[in-house]
Amino acid sequence: MLVIDSHTEGEPTRVIVEGGPDLGSGPLSERAARLGSEFTDFYRSIVAEPYGQEAMVGALLTEPTNPECVAGVIYFDAAAVIGMCGHGTIGLAVTLAHLGKIGPGTHKIETPVGIVDVTLKDKNTVTVTNIDSYRSQKTVTVEVSGIGKVTGDIAYGGNWCFIIDHSPVPVIPSNIMALTEVGVAIREAIYAQGISGEEGGVIDHILFYGSPLNPNNHSRNFVLCPDNAYDRSPCGTGSSARLACLAADGLLQAGKQIYQESIIGSGYTLSYQASPKTHGAVVASITGSAFVTREAKLINNPTDPLRHGVTLTQ
């Protein structure tokens, strides 16, 4: 199996260029569901240790159903198949350019949740124009064991997010462990209390916001991903969901650019326009940089007991 690795603002992506299971030729949403239900061992083997690394997101290249798209893609991490991935899409665009499949300009990529545009500005810089993002619930309070009441917004940016504007733990690198533990506790409380996105959407991204390191920037965030790893980038889908909240509250005008810091100090330039299709939704633009780090051939070792990834048991 041939893969190309990259990182987007510090967050790793592994694109499967050749190989992978036969998921059929139906809609990408159906192919993604099949990958998630029938091929868990496969996708875990790609991104989980020891063959992958912490925080890595996989991107399985597929044939798009829409002929206007240059590629179809299904994203996953060690815990689940995910609908959309902003940093992964930036990494995918840079990888496609590295392979000579796209050049500078705007191209369409099909994901399980819809078609996104990528604008390749140079070999490393990409702007993703995301699907519609929106807030579904404002100021939802969750009772968290050992912490107390935590209030946040529920919003969608390609994945369902719980967004906490005033973090109970300062958003600084020395608190990464504490933020992770609090994020896990909040997500478990959300599940225990039956809180979800629309149509039962699973809230699997927890976002904390705090003051930026650079006062010229908008804010700094910490993002807990479904596999309990933290996002080294500011998280493209999470940033899209946050833009929807800022727009709904009148705190950011359409077209105005802000710089969003990640917990490690990298960042995205963000802006939005009102959705022409959905009232109250926004179309987010996410600009960041990615760098190809590795071309590799993954070797299948049938006798390796850890070939499907490390799983810690009690």
UniProtKB/TrEMBL annotation:
<comment type="similarity">
    <text>Belongs to the proline racemase family.</text>
</comment>
<dbReference type="InterPro" id="IPR008794">
    <property type="entry name" value="Pro_racemase_fam"/>
</dbReference>
<protein>
    <submittedName>
        <fullName>4-hydroxyproline epimerase</fullName>
    </submittedName>
</protein>
<dbReference type="Pfam" id="PF05544">
    <property type="entry name" value="Pro_racemase"/>
</dbReference>
<dbReference type="GO" id="GO:0047580">
    <property type="term" value="F:4-hydroxyproline epimerase activity"/>
</dbReference>
